[in-house]
Structure formats: structure tokens, C-alpha cells
Specification:
Protein name: Methyltransferase domain-containing protein
Number of strands: 11
Number of domains: 2
Strand content: 25-35%
CATH topology of the largest domain: Rossmann fold
Order of helices and strands: HHHEHEHEEHEEEEEHEE
GO biological process, one term: methylation
GO molecular function: methyltransferase activity
CATH class of the largest domain: Alpha Beta
Radius of gyration: 18 Å
Largest sheet: 7 strands, mixed
Strand order of the largest sheet: 3-2-1-4-5-11-10
Keywords: Methyltransferase, S-adenosyl-L-methionine, Transferase
CATH superfamily of the largest domain: Vaccinia Virus protein VP39
CATH architecture of the largest domain: 3-Layer(aba) Sandwich
Helix content: 10-25%
Shape: globular
Distance between the termini: 43 Å
């Protein structure tokens, strides 16, 4: 059967499948915000379970998290209180306030599949950032797949146990070249006799130069665009680590600043 996203619908299962006991993603984010002297007001776009937002809140930031998943937002409010959690679509939102920084972690930005989606996202970010505000993003790197296929060679199998039930996922990735998407099919089976569940999702593959052009068109100046180290690289980011000058690995890290330049057309 084909269903909704099992991990999104069950946030506690998501946190078991993708643990972050050392709060590496949030600590990396705080280091970036500190390096560029960002103010305290932070918008976490695609906040998910709220782990990162809550850690940043505890570190002294005034955080608002937005997401489209009602289950994730309910989990965040219950398990990771502190920030304000709001239901909103990243492809077009109006919160009636401005922030000193907008975050888009764990490839959330790549859920903008079309050029119109990306324009709407960047336009919303710009409108919600104070002058000089930062956009900080962490995502898959489209350039990594030029001439490489190691992530596409064979399905990946993972298991996670929750409430006495062991679930196994078999994940296959492939590239939809015409749509410029990295597509994923994930089939879940479990040892409790439940029927298999198939889920399909995709990420937009963005290339560094393409990303620079999009940001410039929406009035952003790129301050940093690099592949490592970060919270999901090997080796992972550590305190005091400096960004590399390359953009060739499978992750991409972005820091951009809103400028006073008005938006311009890409056409």
C-alpha cells in the first residue's frame, strides 16, 4: 500500500531513526549565527520535531518554528517547548513579523521542487528578514551527482524499533533529470504483521552557481557557500572548525545576507 510519510506522521519514530543526542545541528547553527553576529530573533523554516529550535531557544534565541506537519508541530510543542510553533508553508508564508535570521536545515529548502516554489520561498524569506538578516541553510549538493552514482547504486536498508515493533526501511534513490529532482522510494515493513507501506518523496537538486544566481535575484549576498564541515558531513563539524573553500561533497552549507538591493527578475 502507498501511504503518507511514516516518519513525519510519527515524530517520535523520526527522532529514533535520526538521533542527534549531541545537538550537533543546533550547535553548528548557533556557531554560524555567532560568527556573523546575528540578532536573537530566529525563524526555523521546516522545524520538524522542534529539537533544533528548542536548543537555540535555550541558548538565548527568540525562536519561531514553522512546518506543514500537524503531527510534527504537536510533538514539538509537547516535547520541545519554548519556541512558538506555527503551521505555515515554506513556499509562501506571512507571519506579520521580522527576524534577524531564517534557518532552513536538513535539506528542507529542497522541498521547493519548481522555480516558482523557490521564488516564493526566497521572496517570503526576504520579506521576513530585517535589513542585514541572515539566511542559513544546509542541504544536499546537486553538484555531487555530476559524474557520481555511489548513492544511487543499491537500495539502503535501515531498522528502527519503537513500542516493541521493529520496522525496516528499504530506500532507493534515483535522479529525475528533466525535473532536476533526486527522487526517493522507501518501503517500510514491520515484524507485527502490518502490510508494507511505500512512500515517495523528492528533493530539488540545486547547483552552487544556480543557487548564487537565485539568491542574487532576490536581494541576497552570499557570504559563505561550502561543502564541509557541517552537522551531517563525514567527519562532522566540531567546535572551532572553519569552513572549507570547496563545494564538491554531498552536502552544501549556505550563509547569505539580505541586502538593500530590490528583487530583480531572472528572465
Amino acid at each position: 500500500m502507498t501511504g503518507r510519510n511514516l516518519l513525519t506522521d510519527h515524530p517520535e519514530l523520526y527522532e529514533l531513526r535520526f538521533p542527534d543526542p549531541g545537538h550537533l545541528a543546533a550547535r553548528w547553527t548557533e556557531s554560524v549565527l555567532g560568527r556573523y553576529a546575528a540578532g536573537r530573533r530566529v525563524l526555523d523554516i521546516g522545524c520538524g520535531t522542534g529539537r533544533d529550535a528548542a536548543w537555540l531557544h535555550a541558548a538565548g534565541r527568540r525562536v519561531v518554528g514553522i512546518d506543514t506537519s500537524a503531527a510534527m508541530l504537536a510533538h514539538a510543542r509537547s516535547r520541545h517547548p519554548g519556541p512558538a510553533y506555527l503551521h505555515a508553508d515554506m513556499r509562501g508564508f506571512d507571519l506579520g513579523r521580522t527576524f534577524d535570521a531564517a534557518l532552513c536545515l536538513d535539506s528542507a529548502l529542497l522541498h521547493c521542487h519548481t522555480n516558482d516554489d523557490l521564488d516564493a520561498f526566497l521572496g517570503s524569506c526576504r520579506r521576513h528578514l530585517a535589513p542585514g538578516g541572515l539566511l542559513v541553510a544546509e542541504m544536499r549538493n546537486g553538484a555531487y551527482f555530476l559524474g557520481r552514482h555511489d548513492l544511487l547504486d543499491a537500495p539502503r536498508t535501515d531498522t528502527v524499533t519503537h513500542d516493541g515493533v521493529t520496522r525496516t526501511s528499504r530506500t532507493t534513490l534515483w535522479i529525475d533529470h528533466g525535473a532536476q529532482l533526486l527522487r526517493r522510494t522507501r518501503v517500510w515493513t514491520s515484524d507485527d504483521g502490518s502490510p508494507p507501506t511505500e512512500q515517495n518523496s523528492a528533493w530539488r537538486l540545486l547547483f552552487p552557481q544556480e543557487l548564487r544566481r537565485l539568491l542574487a535575484a532576490h536581494g541576497f549576498e552570499v557570504l559563505a557557500l561550502y561543502d564541509r564541515p557541517g552537522p551531517r558531513t563525514e567527519p562532522p563539524w566540531t567546535e572551532g572548525a572553519r569552513p572549507a573553500g570547496t563545494a564538491d561533497s554531498d552536502r552544501l552549507h549556505l550563509v547569505a545576507r539580505r541586502t538593500d538591493t530590490p528583487e530583480t527578475s531572472l528572465t
